[in-house]
Design goal:
The protein has 294 residues and is an alpha+beta fold. It has two domains: 120 residues, 2-Layer Sandwich (Beta-Lactamase); 155 residues, Reverse transcriptase/Diguanylate cyclase domain (Alpha-Beta Plaits, 2-Layer Sandwich). It contains ten helices and ten strands. A five-stranded antiparallel beta sheet has the order 2-1-5-4-3, sandwiched between helices.
Length: 294
């Protein structure tokens, strides 16, 4: 007679092994078991995983502080959950929500069980909703959300920040002379060049068309002007593959609690238009009503 109960348990075990993405490590983080689901997600075979450190899938961009916090938590016998950027055997990036549970017996930690959920698709959808589809920097909607946090942080820490409003000079002529595909290429190249020159704490957004906004965290007008001029010269001296250099008109304003963030952006926008009216390819500081610099 067929033992249906044993057969069902075997089938259930196979299904769970394939669909549950998990690894088990010893107390030192060395992998001692891996599910079929983890093999599929990571690209490594079980034999390649056994005996190696669990950080084999760690992406180089992952902050060291995150792993330090993770390890500090689980070695105290507490569970840890979080989202981590991983890298498969072939170098493909994927995101996982991980819950790690200490395996405790005889009042000591025998090892750890990590259960992974692939959230790469959700992360990509969030990224697409937050980023400008052409340049890959923040879109206006995401920028406005982050700007609210910047205002709150400035209020709490009693710091300030600077808004830089940028317009690419004569961009219509670039489109008319070289075509819109070349114009798009200039926007992409300009965005990459600018993003790489900024700090990670700074916000960089495509405001619309050829207009861009930067928020320099914890920076006053003096710092803002120095960075704006650095960017202007960087772009002017960069070879975009055109017969003439690409130049920028830039306006700068400093945030004060006495005025709204919308007013701060408008001040930077007006200063940028002043730069355009004065001949372009220059940086202009915003002024208050009494004629003094912000």
């Amino acid at each position: 007679m067929v033992n249906y109960s044993a057969h069902i348990e075997e089938l259930k075990s196979e299904i769970l092994d394939r669909n549950l993405v998990s690894i088990t490590t010893d107390g030192n983080g060395i992998i001692i078991d891996a599910s079929k689901g983890f093999e599929i997600l990571s690209g490594y075979t079980r034999n390649e995983l056994l005996g190696v450190n669990h950080q084999i899938i760690r992406h180089p961009d992952t902050p060291k502080e995150m792993f330090a916090n993770l390890w500090d938590t689980i070695t105290k016998g507490k569970s840890w959950c979080g989202e981590i950027k991983n890298q498969s055997k072939c170098g493909k990036v994927y995101w996982s929500k991980i819950c790690i549970e200490p395996l405790i017996g005889n009042n000591s930690i025998l090892g750890y069980l990590g259960i992974y959920t692939n959230i790469t698709e959700q992360k990509e959808l969030l990224r697409q909703a937050s980023m400008d589809s052409l340049t890959g920097i923040y879109n206006r909607s995401k920028f406005n959300l982050l700007l609210c946090h910047e205002v709150e942080e400035a209020y709490r820490s009693k710091n300030t920040f600077t808004v830089i409003f940028i317009d690419i000079d004569h961009f219509k002529i670039i489109n008319d002379r070289y075509g819109h595909l070349e114009g798009d290429r200039v926007l992409i190249e300009f965005s990459a060049l600018t993003r790489d020159a900024l700090r990670k704490s700074d916000l960089f957004c495509r405001w619309g068309g050829e207009e861009f906004i930067i928020v320099l965290s914890k920076a006053d007008l003096t710092i803002g002007y120095t960075i704006a001029e650095k960017l202007r010269n960087l772009v002017q001296n960069h070879d975009f593959g055109l017969t003439e250099p690409v130049t920028l008109s830039i306006g700068i304003s400093q945030y004060h609690p006495s005025k709204s963030i919308d007013e701060t952006i408008k001040d930077a926008d007006r200063a940028m238009y002043k730069a355009k009216n004065q001949g372009r390819n220059q940086t202009v500081l915003a002024y208050t009503n009494d004629g003094e610099e912000d």
